[in-house]
């Protein structure tokens, strides 16, 4: 079976074992039904020590302006590293952002990040969380100074990079090692596609899969269940959020946002760029009857996506096969 290749050394059951990077061979490999990644760690060698450092930084709230918020605050493992608690990002001083915190997994296959595609490199993607006024509200110079004076960080950087020197590049590379290894590719869907262990869809799931391929797959393309494009799905006649046009300055990009992945969708609500929908039922009903004729509406949604009550249940049943419980419950990724 080819999926995330992490040699987990169990002394007892998954639920009872505390998995530690130093006891685990951290490697990155490609699920058999995935294409080659865009990021391959060639210039950021993946090591146990680098991964462990990145994980510690990811969960350290001391890096934020008021010591209250970490990357893990908005990217919670039990929600597939999305944010279950809030419609939009929730940062220092109880500040509310304007967009929903997207899930973090399979990032090595992305060429652009965030709802508007404003960042083009996985290694620089954490910068937004550090510097945004409604997230961690700090800067790398401040973070570097803090880490230099905070044990055990100098020794952790020495283990990861061979020197106690701490700089912004090493910080970003180590966080990338942690985030890059967050690969979700072992859902029931994946096992069916790879014909593993005799796993098969139920009749309802199979009916939902057929409906999905007919009605949804042009945007939510397998195996990532997104085509990584930016589209307007008619949430409003005039979007309050300018969307991708904020990055490109192009009028036809106004109110368009990246097509989100549907993997682990069972646990990544609230949904849409502004977190307006709390359930899959609301999402499906939007496409069935709620699409607004916005100026940049995706042409494929001009006539909405008619769905009967039975079809909605079938599609939901299929979407739940995209849940990767092994990934969501993997203690290797959990805060120590």
CATH class of the largest domain: Mainly Alpha
Counting structural domains, the number is 2
Task: Please identify which CATH superfamily of the largest domain we are dealing with.
Answer: Cytochrome c-like domain
In the CATH hierarchy, the third-tier topology of the largest domain is known as: Cytochrome Bc1 Complex, Chain D, domain 2
**Pairing-aware structural class of the strands and helices?**
mainly alpha
Enumerate how many helices there are, as a single number: 12
Q: Order of strands across the widest beta sheet? A: 1-2
Radius of gyration: 20 Å
Distance between the termini: 28 Å
* Largest sheet: number of strands, sense, barrel closure: 2 strands, antiparallel
Describe the model:
By secondary structure, the chain is mainly alpha-helical. The protein has two domains: 179 residues, Cytochrome c-like domain (Cytochrome Bc1 Complex, Chain D, domain 2), CATH 1.10.760; 135 residues, Cytochrome Bc1 Complex, Chain D, domain 2. Helix content is 30%, strand content 2%. A two-stranded antiparallel ribbon has the order 1-2. The two termini are 28 Å apart.
Topology:
Layout: E1 6-7, E2 25-26, H1 48-58, H2 71-74, H3 126-131, H4 140-148, H5 153-161, H6 168-180, H7 188-193, H8 203-215, E3 230-231, H9 245-248, E4 257-258, H10 280-290, H11 309-319, H12 325-328
Antiparallel strand pairs: 1-2, 3-4
Helix pairs in contact: 1-5, 1-6, 8-11
How would you concisely characterize the structure shown here?
By secondary structure, this protein is mainly alpha-helical. It has helices spanning 48-58, 71-74, 126-131, 140-148, 153-161, 168-180, 188-193, 203-215, 245-248, 280-290, 309-319, 325-328; strands spanning 6-7, 25-26, 230-231, 257-258.
